[in-house]
TrEMBL record:
<feature type="domain" description="Metallo-beta-lactamase">
    <location>
        <begin position="19"/>
        <end position="218"/>
    </location>
</feature>
<keyword id="KW-0255">Endonuclease</keyword>
<protein>
    <recommendedName>
        <fullName>Ribonuclease Z</fullName>
        <ecNumber>3.1.26.11</ecNumber>
    </recommendedName>
</protein>
<keyword id="KW-0479">Metal-binding</keyword>
<dbReference type="InterPro" id="IPR044094">
    <property type="entry name" value="AtsA-like_MBL-fold"/>
</dbReference>
<comment type="subunit">
    <text>Homodimer.</text>
</comment>
<keyword id="KW-0378">Hydrolase</keyword>
<keyword id="KW-0540">Nuclease</keyword>
<dbReference type="InterPro" id="IPR001279">
    <property type="entry name" value="Metallo-B-lactamas"/>
</dbReference>
<keyword id="KW-0862">Zinc</keyword>
<dbReference type="GO" id="GO:0046872">
    <property type="term" value="F:metal ion binding"/>
</dbReference>
<feature type="active site" description="Proton acceptor">
    <location>
        <position position="65"/>
    </location>
</feature>
<comment type="similarity">
    <text>Belongs to the RNase Z family.</text>
</comment>
<dbReference type="InterPro" id="IPR013471">
    <property type="entry name" value="RNase_Z/BN"/>
</dbReference>
<dbReference type="GO" id="GO:0042781">
    <property type="term" value="F:3'-tRNA processing endoribonuclease activity"/>
</dbReference>
<keyword id="KW-0819">tRNA processing</keyword>
<dbReference type="InterPro" id="IPR036866">
    <property type="entry name" value="RibonucZ/Hydroxyglut_hydro"/>
</dbReference>
Amino acid sequence: MIEVTLLGTGSPIPDPRRAGPATLVRAGDQTFLVDCGRGVQQRLAAAGASAGALTALLLTHLHSDHIADLGDLLITRWVTTFDPDAPALPIIGPPGTRDVVDGMLAAFGHDIGYRIAHHPDLTGPPRVDVREVESGTVWERGDVQVRVGATDHRPVAPTLGFRIEHAGASVVLAGDTVPCAGLDDLARGAGALVHTVIRKDLISLLPQQRARDICDYHSSVEEAGATATRAGVGILVLTHYVPGIAPGQEEEWRALAATTFHRQIELGDDLHRVEVHPGMCGAPDEIRPGA
Ligand SMILES: [Zn+2]
Ligand SMILES: [Zn+2]
C-alpha cells in the first residue's frame, strides 16, 4: 500500500486554511515529500512526519509556490538531526534545482555560520544530494522505484511528473501541467494520479490579464479527469485548487471531475489522506468520457 497525504492544497494565493503545494507519499519504510510549498513543515508535523524523517524530496518544478519553504526545510532537518552519519537529503528535481538549493543555502549562510559557531557537534552546513533529472528511473531503493516523465507547464521548462511504485501499488504526481503525452505515458495504469487543477471557468472571468494567463499552462478539473481516464488510473486525487475550494463547494468540484472521470475522485482540505492499494487501476480506454 502507498499512502498519499495532501499536505498543502493551496496555490500562490495565501489562504488561511490551505498551505502551499506539497504532498507526502509513504511507501513501505520510505517517505517522500513532493514539492515544498508554504507552511509545509506545520503540515508535516500534523501528518506525523518531519523534515528529519524524509527519505527524499522530489520537486516537480521550480515555481515559487512549489519551493517556498525549501530553505526552512533544509535548515530544520539540519538542526534536528543528531546522528552525525545521517545521510544527505536526496533532492531530485529538474535542471535548475542545484541553483535553487545552493541559493537557499546561501540565503541562510549567516544562520548556518552562527549555528556552527555555537554548537560543537555541528561541524558543517546542511548536507544535500541534488540530482537534476529529466526522465527515466531516478530512484531504486529497497522495494520502491521512482520514475520521471516530462510534463508541459511551458514556459516553465523542463517540468517533471513522478511515478512512485511499491509492492504492486503506484502513484503518479503530475505537478502543474496541461494535458500532454508525457503525463499520459507516465500515468498509464497507475493506482492513483495526484493532479493540480484550476477552475478555468472561474479564472477566465477575472478582470486581470495576469490572472487569466494562468489558464494556459494548467489543467482544468475536467482536463485532469480526462487525463486520468485516458491513462486508466484507479483514483484521481485533485489538489492545488485555484481558486481555493470554499467550504461547501467540494461537491461542485467533484461533479466537474466526474464529467470526464468515472472512478474514485478524492479532494478536500489539507491533510486529506488516500490509500492506494495494488491493483487499483483500470485499463486505458476502459472508461470513456460521457459513457
Ligand atoms: Zn507551476
Ligand atoms: Zn503551482
